[in-house]
Amino acid sequence: MPLRALGLRYLLPALLIALSACETTGVAPVTTPRPPGDIAPPEPEIVAPSPESEAERLYYARVEANYLAQDLLRADGGGEDTPFGPSDVVENFLRIAFFDEFTERGGRLVAEASENRLHRWQRPVRVAVEFGASVPAAQRSKDRADVNSYLARLSSLTGLPIRMTAWRANHTVFILNADERAAAGPVLTAVAPQISGAALRSVTEMRPDTYCTVFSFSPGKSAIYSGAVTVIRGELPDRLRLACIHEELAQSLGLVADHPHARPSIFNDNEEFALLTRQDELLLRILYDPRLWPGMTLDEARPVVRTIVAALMAGES
């Protein structure tokens, strides 16, 4: 079952500083699926974070403060300073939806752009959110609320049924601290047996400059997604953590790459925008327009995308 490493939200190189390593602990168990309308069972007891995790939390707080001091991680969706036209949207969509960012080489994921076919979901997406044992209770409540409200927005934009539930989840979001990520191999394999060794290592040996990552799966040679896994650093402060939620969940739907010319957009590694923008909303609407279909090539899609964008942009004017 093919895996697509859809993207990593990572640290700008100028902000990278070293972190120390400490001893590890375990991962909170995966929630047992429950029927619709269920009541969540009591969560496992929360444990104290390790010294390594505490050090990371302080470190990423400094990183976020640095970004905000530079007017990055914007949450305004773009404005008069970020104009874009139909040709921008067309080219940005084609670059973001039809190119993979990573490939596997030597048992590792390496950055290498390659053209692919259009991939997307054709079935309801049921998203479960799981936390490492040392993630604080208040953070869990906030993250669940953020994920739940964002999924409703994504569902409205795409027309795809998307909701948060532990019942028969086909996309699991893990929010894990350092020790839990290092020990996450078995739980990731249990949730996604098709996950590759390279993908597992990108989580268990997550680089300090990586904030979060997402992988989506499709059966055989199909271009229709059947499952996904997202992993987010639990130590991230609120804005960076929410940025990961926005980007990774949107990428899991089929907007798989970043593009340096996409602005305003979260699909751009410059960290200017933290949250889904006006242009990103258009990209999602294009992706799930019925005039496109899974498996289309870029050349097949280009004239169709131009038609779709012309109609969408005319409706906005």
Show the helix and strand layout:
Layout lengths: L2 E8 L40 H19 L16 H12 L1 E7 L2 E8 L4 E2 L3 E7 L5 H22 L3 E3 L6 E6 L1 H5 L2 H7 L5 H8 L5 E8 L6 E2 L1 E7 L4 H14 L26 H10 L10 H19 L1
Parallel strand pairs: 4-9, 5-6, 5-7, 7-10
Antiparallel strand pairs: 1-8, 2-3, 8-10
Helix pairs in contact: 2-8, 2-9, 3-7
- DSSP helix fraction: 25-40%
The number of helices is: 9
Biggest sheet, in brief? Answer: 6 strands, mixed
Shape: globular
Residue windows where pLDDT falls under 50 for at least 5 positions: 1-5, 10-35
Radius of gyration: 19 Å
Widest sheet: strand ordering: 1-8-10-7-5-6
Report a brief summary of the structure.
This protein has about 325 residues and is of the alpha/beta class. Helix content is about 35%, strand content about 20%. Strands 1-8-10-7-5-6 form a 6-stranded mixed beta sheet, sandwiched between helices.
